[in-house]
């Protein structure tokens, strides 16, 4: 039985996604203060779990700290401390985290994120729908990653700056790469969508047949795009997603 994806209305979803993104920026800034720099900059990405977004494992003075955005109870968690989403927006949580570290005499440089412009609004029902969709894509991307043959694949990570969930494949272990991602919508495409890009873009990649509902994006970036709405309305969203990224799964 196919999983029914929740409906995501970009106009209603937008303010809540911006609110969560601000909190994700804080989480990312926190983890980067302690993680080593990765050659592919993977220290910027957050992981997805059943309860929301998680910082990658990091330690302070030999002690492992846990930090996450709980999208079930809507709290920013830092070890045993919690800040409710509807009481604290990104800038306030950022200051709270720095105070938390200072109170424990932890010296760390946290970059100040570029937060969204007020007013900020958080709605739990929109957050719940987004969390369900995000969890589905994380699971699907993980399965696709397991099926890719050869080369190097990235972890499946959510990058707070653009707020997209991403899987990157380096088929030849060099700079050539394919990038598969899920975005809740942005200035280029104002609705949730999935993209597949190739670097460098080749004529062969551009000429590949597109599945029903997909199109070629040329404004701001070049790549294959399929909207979340098209996936949601498909008889089998899972199969349509695999057809969309067939170049990554070809043997």
Q: Can you characterise this structure?
A:
With 251 residues, the protein is an alpha+beta fold. The protein folds into two domains: 10-103; 127-249. 33% of the residues lie in helices and 24% in strands. The chain has seven helices and 14 strands. The chain has helices at 10-32, 90-103, 124-147, 203-206, 228-233, 237-244, 246-249, and strands spanning 47-49, 52-54, 58-60, 63-65, 67-70, 75-78, 81-84, 152-153, 157-159, 164-170, 177-183, 193-199, 214-217, 223-227. Helix 1 packs parallel to helix 2 and helix 1 (10-32) crosses helix 3. The longest helix is centred in the middle third of the chain and has 24 residues, at 124-147. The model has no long low-confidence stretch (mean pLDDT 94).
Question: How are the secondary structure elements laid out?
Answer:
Elements: H1 10-32, E1 47-49, E2 52-54, E3 58-60, E4 63-65, E5 67-70, E6 75-78, E7 81-84, H2 90-103, H3 124-147, E8 152-153, E9 157-159, E10 164-170, E11 177-183, E12 193-199, H4 203-206, E13 214-217, E14 223-227, H5 228-233, H6 237-244, H7 246-249
Antiparallel strand pairs: 1-2, 2-5, 3-4, 5-6, 6-7, 8-10, 9-10, 10-11, 11-12, 12-14, 13-14
Helix pairs in contact: 1-2, 1-3
């Amino acid at each position: 039985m196919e999983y029914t994806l929740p409906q995501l209305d970009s106009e209603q979803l937008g303010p809540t996604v911006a609110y969560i993104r601000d909190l994700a920026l804080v989480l990312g800034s926190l983890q980067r203060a302690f993680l080593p720099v990765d050659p592919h900059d993977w220290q910027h990405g957050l992981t997805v779990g059943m309860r929301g977004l998680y910082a990658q494992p990091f330690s302070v003075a030999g002690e492992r700290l846990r930090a996450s955005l709980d999208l079930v109870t809507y709290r920013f968690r830092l070890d045993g401390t919690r800040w409710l989403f509807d009481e604290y927006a990104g800038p306030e949580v950022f200051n709270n985290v720095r105070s938390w570290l200072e109170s424990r005499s932890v010296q760390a440089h946290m970059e100040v994120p570029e937060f969204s412009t007020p007013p900020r609004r958080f709605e739990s029902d929109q957050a719940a729908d987004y969390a369900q969709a995000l969890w589905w894509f994380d699971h699907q991307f993980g399965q696709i990653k397991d099926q890719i043959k050869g080369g190097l694949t990235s972890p499946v990570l959510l990058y707070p700056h653009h707020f997209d969930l991403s899987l990157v494949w380096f088929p030849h272990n060099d700079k050539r790469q394919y990038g598969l991602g899920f975005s809740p919508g942005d200035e280029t495409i104002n609705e949730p969508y999935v993209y597949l890009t190739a670097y460098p873009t080749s004529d062969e990649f551009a000429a590949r047949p597109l599945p029903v509902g997909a199109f070629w994006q040329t404004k701001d970036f070049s790549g294959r795009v399929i909207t979340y709405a098209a996936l949601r309305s498909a008889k089998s969203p899972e199969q349509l997603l695999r057809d969309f990224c067939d170049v990554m799964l070809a043997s």
